[in-house]
Write a structure and sequence with these properties.
GO molecular function, one term: diguanylate cyclase activity
CATH topology of the largest domain: Rhopdopsin 7-helix transmembrane proteins
CATH architecture of the largest domain: Up-down Bundle
Keywords: Membrane, Transmembrane, Transmembrane helix
Largest sheet: 5 strands, mixed
Number of domains: 2
CATH class of the largest domain: Mainly Alpha
Enzyme class: transferase
Order of helices and strands: HHHHHHHHEHHEEHEHEH
Radius of gyration: 31 Å
Oligomer: single chain
Organism: Noviherbaspirillum pedocola
Distance between the termini: 78 Å
Number of strands: 5
Protein name: diguanylate cyclase
Bound molecules: guanosine-5'-triphosphate
Length: 389
């Protein structure tokens, strides 16, 4: 038995809801458009704040507003949060199921508001629907890939909130029928209302941390990638190369490096113009992505020069991959893009090495040999070149 006025929780929920909504709309206006879900979550918080404000006026306004409308707004609010998580994680929002749940709950709530005032049934409907929605929110995060601390924090908070709404559902089944809104002093009711107030803030903070993490990854990606081709920029590539060489030496694994330069590119520019030249560079970068494994790393080394790092790859495989790339480049697949070819130099890491730059120099020399040999060729750095490593 607790003596805290349930309205205090309701007023706190309203205040928190307004604050959270304001923060989310403010973030939405400044965040990149491809980080989705902020506005929808902000709307969800606004719904919850309005619902809590209406509920706190219980007795002073008609019950159609303080009970019926406020309950529907709470369901809409949590529904919006569910949709927002789906949007954020790239899942198409499943509005049909949420709308169906909303209408079923609306029918039940209309019955207990207008036909047969029954506090217990109202609690059952609300806690049942909210258990489903909070569990669905947790499930969206559980199923998402690439989770960090903010995602796990929000996920467990959703699970905890769903657990408490479910406990409220179970206790309502066994509750005395005489209990009403103003006479329900049970501990679980206070925990339930308190959870609602604080989970609005906790979950919103968790979501803000999630979108902040997404923004951080996006900025990191943009800083390390070449804008035109999506390949690694030279400095980011060198960082990755250093790491992979260190790993290869530690694990005694092979590693190969390909240096690639498009042939006669100056004449492509001169003949078709710079824009078409850019299309050729992009086309080649796409072909590289298509031909390589997820773990391989493509860097743009210069204008029409690319470099590819092939971890865990020995001479035979690296030569086959290089030939595949050379062949793919020579395939004329796109009507708007002129035919082009590429010369490739291949160098292999043979420990003990003198580092990344020496490996690049060897691949560069081999690439120069390919140019000298008539272009559209793959050359492997000679033993002497490798010995320089
Ligand atoms: N369109 C376009 N051209 C570029 C870009 N970066 C460099 N280039 C041009 O690419 C050309 C490179 O030519 P070179 O390296 O001199 O040689 P090449 O004509 O490819 O001849 P080989 O390398 O001997 O086959 C230069 O004309 C550069 O201006 C770019 O981002 N877009």
């Amino acid at each position: 038995m607790l003596g805290i006025d349930p309205r205090s929780f309701v007023v706190i929920t309203a205040a928190f809801g307004i604050l959270c909504s304001f923060v989310l709309f403010a973030l939405h206006s400044g965040f990149p458009r491809d980080i989705k879900g902020l506005a929808r979550w902000g709307r969800g918080c606004a719904f919850m704040a309005t619902a809590a404000a209406l509920l706190s006026m219980r007795g002073a306004i008609p019950s159609v507003f303080s009970n019926f409308l406020s309950d529907l707004l709470i369901i809409s609010g949590v529904g919006a949060i569910y949709g927002s998580l789906q949007e954020f994680t790239g899942v198409a929002p499943n509005t049909r199921r949420v709308t169906a749940l909303f209408f079923i709950a609306a029918l039940g709530l209309a019955w207990v508001t207008f036909a047969h005032d029954d506090y217990r049934v109202r609690v059952l409907i609300m806690s049942g629907v909210l258990t489903i929605l909070f569990s669905a929110c947790a499930w969206v995060i559980i199923k998402s890939r690439d989770k960090g601390f903010p995602d796990l924090f929000t996920q467990y908070l959703f699970i905890g909130t769903a657990g408490i709404t479910f406990a409220r559902f179970i206790t309502a089944i066994f509750e005395e029928r005489a209990v009403t809104f103003d006479k329900d002093f049970s501990l679980i009711r206070h925990v339930y209302l308190g959870t609602f107030a604080f989970s609005t803030v906790g979950l919103t903070l968790g979501f803000i941390l999630m979108v902040n993490r997404a923004l951080h990854s996006k900025l990191e990606y943009l800083a390390s990638r070449d804008h035109m081709t999506g390949a690694y920029r030279r400095d980011a590539f060198m960082q990755r190369l250093d790491d992979e060489i260190a790993a290869a030496e530690r694990q005694c694994k092979p590693l190969a490096l390909l240096m690639m330069d498009l042939d006669n590119f100056k004449s492509i520019n001169d003949r078709y113009g710079h824009t078409v030249g850019d299309h050729v560079i992009r086309d080649f970068a796409d072909k590289l992505t298509h031909e390589l494994r997820h773990n391989d790393c493509v860097g743009r080394y210069g204008g029409e020069e690319f470099i590819v790092l092939l971890p865990h790859t020995g001479e035979v495989d690296a030569k086959a991959i290089a030939e595949r790339i050379r062949d793919a480049a020579a395939q004329h697949t796109h009507g708007d893009i002129p035919a082009y070819t590429v010369s490739i130099g291949l160098a292999l890491l043979s420990p003990p090495t003198s580092g990344a730059q020496a490996l690049i120099d060897a691949a560069d020399k081999a690439m120069y040999m390919a140019k000298q040999a008539g272009k559209n060729k793959v050359e492997i750095a000679s033993v002497e070149m490798q010995e320089l490593l």
